Amino acid sequence: MAKGRPAETRPYHHGDLRAALVDAGLKLAREGGSAALGLRSVTRAVGVTPNAAYRHFADHQALVLGVAAEAQDKLARAMLDRMEALRATVGPDPVAQSVRNLHGVGLGYIEFALSEPGWFELAILTPDDSRAGAPPATLADRVAPPYQLLVDALDTMVRAGAMSPERRVNAEWVCWSSVHGFADLATRGPLAWQDRGTIDRLAAHVVDTTVRVLMG
Question: At 9, phi and psi to the nearest 5?
């Protein structure tokens, strides 16, 4: 019987191996978070040797951050879906639409943290030592899409007249602190033992209170 092709020379087209590694990393991280993203674990899932990964990622951290960028995109998609669903509950009034947008940003963030804890852990990693909990201004040389959605939602509220320019100053940190703090309490803090219905009601209260404070 002829020997099989060596794993590192499998016929991946240019760029396909990188995508395959990231996809494998996402599958592993969904259950195990960043701790599941060992270089050998990821390359084994794809069927290549660890050395093959270095053709597309400078080191292990680069691989983790590449997977984290995809997790950020998934978080942003969840936030967008929640924003769209909430906008559909109000009429075309720009003030109401802008307020619903901000509600969607916060609720989408919390819901993703609860539903996809492994991906959420990755989405909030930062390049410097992967410190969880810090709002990621950049990851893999880009502005984090979830953060950009928050900034855009706040700016839209100002343009619509739902929030004054004075209250807009540093409002992103007020919002992020509120929703991330609640997400942390609900996933690994004293609220973690509560049923999902209770957590969802509390999340809605936290987000609504934060929005009302910003609106004055």
Answer: -110, 20
- Which helix (H) or strand (E) is 78 found in, with range? helix 60-87
Q: How far, in Å, CA of 174 to CA of 40, rounded? A: 40
Q: Are 119 and 30 in contact (CB under 8 A)?
A: yes
Would you place residue 130 in the very low, low, confident or very high pLDDT band (cuts 50, 70, 90)? very low
**The tokens of 20 are what?**
């395959």
Ramachandran assignment for 91, one of left (phi > 0), alpha (psi -120 to 50 degrees), beta (any other): beta
Whole-model pTM: value is 0.87
Measured CA to CA, the distance from residue 173 to residue 196 in angstroms comes to 26
Q: Which residue has the tokens 């093959």?
A: 52
Share of the chain above pLDDT 90, in %: 75
Judged by phi (left if over 0) then psi (alpha if -120 to 50, else beta), residue 42 lies in alpha
- DSSP notation for 7-44: GGGS-PPTTHHHHHHHHHHHHHHHHHGGGG--HHHHHH
Q: Could you tell me which of 39, 63, 41 has the C-alpha nearest to residue 51?
A: 39
State which H helix or E strand residue 3 sits in: none
